[in-house]
């Protein structure tokens, strides 16, 4: 059994290993090169009966684990969106792990609850969210909570909207059965919303309509209003809209200023998913991307994406916490305490009962970076994205297919989907950089995201050279000729 002396020694070795790993991460291929099932061949079939030596465990990190790691913090990782990381966040998580509280109620660890309330108010003020979202607003009903992911936030918002709609219709027509009302509820989102939004509808058993977007891949108010009127004419009950600030396929921005008034007039819950782009709102020049947020019922973004906070830390705010808490409140005797009703008990704000002390890492990051350094990080990555965009535009073989607003560039060869898919496959196979594809207007496009904090201008040119080298390859030219009928 380990003791504090062992922990001190091994902990120092692990801190050095982590620092060396992050300092030299660019030397590792960004995408793991192993085949499925590789790991089982490298370890025994059963757990050890007697303890292994720390030296053997430590050695197996490089032998067994690292070959199967895709290095999200490599400056050559340009797929998906960023996942946050920093030494400040790691230190906060270390303390959270050591304290090891399960903060389901205020009494279970008062600091766990109260620090979360304060840091989310700090964060909300940084984003310039409406005062109605903040727990510090006198007489207000709003507040924030740290969820695990944006997916969980969407599920919570949709389930809350579902229960609110049922209560509203039961109040007007008490004779109606709750499950009959449920069968008529409808939710709406953009055709380019994240897949987790559609999954939320499956979990909540609420029908989801995926609505078409404009030429900027954004959902507009006119489209939503038409869909709502169509459904009402069919006797259905519009209950929920999920608008996105910074969609995954192209980083598009649904028009909140048009969508919000429609939701307010129709008494439809408006949830805003800003998982990636929300961090940018701390920069004054990007705050207008969220114009109209004051009419939202709930708002979410992931500090664990772009704000240097490591996973998991997804910030969610609601205008009226009663709508959230009222949908899920269950109070067994063993969870009651003398301050109940006077303080926040976060077990009512999310699906699991247990919760980690996640606000510690957020608090460490906000204090050790300050708003200014976080703004600098965002602006640097946006500038790097525009640098990559300029390289693409200089090559007549390529085209930019969506506005570059933040850290994502969507581009493609001027040609067929077959060519673009093959180009992406070949670039990935080199192991130099890692990108992924998507579809916009039913066309295959390649996404280039600036992800790692270490990414520099040299890395942008390195990635572009890796792409153009494969574009110039004879094999790709042969596919081009075949696809053009030559």
Automatic annotation (TrEMBL):
<dbReference type="GO" id="GO:0030170">
    <property type="term" value="F:pyridoxal phosphate binding"/>
</dbReference>
<comment type="similarity">
    <text>Belongs to the group II decarboxylase family.</text>
</comment>
<keyword id="KW-0456">Lyase</keyword>
<dbReference type="InterPro" id="IPR021115">
    <property type="entry name" value="Pyridoxal-P_BS"/>
</dbReference>
<dbReference type="InterPro" id="IPR015422">
    <property type="entry name" value="PyrdxlP-dep_Trfase_small"/>
</dbReference>
<dbReference type="InterPro" id="IPR002129">
    <property type="entry name" value="PyrdxlP-dep_de-COase"/>
</dbReference>
<keyword id="KW-0210">Decarboxylase</keyword>
<protein>
    <recommendedName>
        <fullName>Aromatic-L-amino-acid decarboxylase</fullName>
        <ecNumber>4.1.1.28</ecNumber>
    </recommendedName>
</protein>
<dbReference type="GO" id="GO:0042423">
    <property type="term" value="P:catecholamine biosynthetic process"/>
</dbReference>
<dbReference type="GO" id="GO:0004058">
    <property type="term" value="F:aromatic-L-amino-acid decarboxylase activity"/>
</dbReference>
<dbReference type="GO" id="GO:0042427">
    <property type="term" value="P:serotonin biosynthetic process"/>
</dbReference>
<comment type="subunit">
    <text>Homodimer.</text>
</comment>
<feature type="modified residue" description="N6-(pyridoxal phosphate)lysine">
    <location>
        <position position="305"/>
    </location>
</feature>
<dbReference type="GO" id="GO:0006520">
    <property type="term" value="P:amino acid metabolic process"/>
</dbReference>
<keyword id="KW-0127">Catecholamine biosynthesis</keyword>
<dbReference type="InterPro" id="IPR010977">
    <property type="entry name" value="Aromatic_deC"/>
</dbReference>
<dbReference type="InterPro" id="IPR015424">
    <property type="entry name" value="PyrdxlP-dep_Trfase"/>
</dbReference>
<dbReference type="GO" id="GO:0019752">
    <property type="term" value="P:carboxylic acid metabolic process"/>
</dbReference>
<dbReference type="Pfam" id="PF00282">
    <property type="entry name" value="Pyridoxal_deC"/>
</dbReference>
<dbReference type="InterPro" id="IPR015421">
    <property type="entry name" value="PyrdxlP-dep_Trfase_major"/>
</dbReference>
<keyword id="KW-0663">Pyridoxal phosphate</keyword>
<dbReference type="GO" id="GO:0005737">
    <property type="term" value="C:cytoplasm"/>
</dbReference>
């Amino acid at each position: 059994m380990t003791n504090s002396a062992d922990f001190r020694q091994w902990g120092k070795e692990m801190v050095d290993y982590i620092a060396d790993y992050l300092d030299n991460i660019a030397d590792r291929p960004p995408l793991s090169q192993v085949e499925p099932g590789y790991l089982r061949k490298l370890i025994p079939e059963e757990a050890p009966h007697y303890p292994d030596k720390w030296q053997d465990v430590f050695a197996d990190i490089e032998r067994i684990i690292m070959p199967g790691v895709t290095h999200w913090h490599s400056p050559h990782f340009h797929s998906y969106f960023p996942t946050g990381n920093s030494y400040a966040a790691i230190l906060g998580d270390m303390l959270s792990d050591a304290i090891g509280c399960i903060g389901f109620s205020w009494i279970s660890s008062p600091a766990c609850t109260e620090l979360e309330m304060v840091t989310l108010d700090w964060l909300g003020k940084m984003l310039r969210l409406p005062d109605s979202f903040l727990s510090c607003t006198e007489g207000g009903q709003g507040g924030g909570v740290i969820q695990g992911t944006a997916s969980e936030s969407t599920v919570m918002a949709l389930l809350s909207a579902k229960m609110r709609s049922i209560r509203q219709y039961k109040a007007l027509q008490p004779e109606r059965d709750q499950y009959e009302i449920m069968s008529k509820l409808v939710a709406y989102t953009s055709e380019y919303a994240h897949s987790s939004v559609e999954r939320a509808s499956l979990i909540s058993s609420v029908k989801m309509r995926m609505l078409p977007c404009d030429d900027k891949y954004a959902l507009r108010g006119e489209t939503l209003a038409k869909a709502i009127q169509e459904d009402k004419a069919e006797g259905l009950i519009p209950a929920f809209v999920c608008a996105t600030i910074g969609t995954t396929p192209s980083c598009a921005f649904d028009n909140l200023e048009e969508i919000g008034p429609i939701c307010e007039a129709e008494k439809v819950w408006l949830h805003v998913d800003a998982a990636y782009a929300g961090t940018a709102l701390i920069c004054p020049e990007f705050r207008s991307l969220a114009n109209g947020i004051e009419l939202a019922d709930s708002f979410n973004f992931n500090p664990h994406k772009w704000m240097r906070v490591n996973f998991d830390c997804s910030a969610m705010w609601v205008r009226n916490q009663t709508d959230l808490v009222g949908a899920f409140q269950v109070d067994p005797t063993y969870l009651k305490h003398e301050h109940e009703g006077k303080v926040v008990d976060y077990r009512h704000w999310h699906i699991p009962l247990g919760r980690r002390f996640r606000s510690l890492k957020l608090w460490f990051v906000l204090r050790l970076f300050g708003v200014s350094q976080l703004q600098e990080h965002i602006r640097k990555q946006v500038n790097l994205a525009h640098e990559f965009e300029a390289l693409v535009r200089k090559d007549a073989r390529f085209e930019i297919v969506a506005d570059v607003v933040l850290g994502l560039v969507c581009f493609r060869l001027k040609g067929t989907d077959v060519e673009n898919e093959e180009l992406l496959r070949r670039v990935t196979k080199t192991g130099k950089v890692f990108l992924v594809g998507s579809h916009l207007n039913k066309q295959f496009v390649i996404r280039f995201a600036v992800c790692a904090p270490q990414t520099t201008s040299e890395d942008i040119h390195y990635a572009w050279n890796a792409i153009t080298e494969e574009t110039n390859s004879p094999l790709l030219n042969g596919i081009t000729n075949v696809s053009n009928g030559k």
